[in-house]
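S1.2 Input.
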Amino acid sequence: MDKVIKKISEIEATASSVMEDANERKKAFAKEMEEKTAEFDRNLDAQTEEKIHELQHQMEIEMNSKLSKQKSDADALLARMQTNYDNHHRTYVRKLFEQLVKE
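S1.3 Output.
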């Protein structure tokens, strides 16, 4: 009977040892997963920040290009208006004068 109790005691000690080892491995695995998750989050944040900067830079370039085109178009329109005025201002003045005198 003592042999059986001793054997059960040994089995129980071995089982306890296995359970402790499993708990230690579980803790180590949890810590490793936490570290990997934190590293993943840092990498994702860095990639996101980089992409945001790229998009901002592209949008700034696009905006400057559009502004430059608008300025060029406005300058061209003003030049056409000035040319039209230079070529026809006497006609405009004469017509305006005729309308004023007619009333």
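S1.4 Remarks. The first helix runs from residue 2 to 102.
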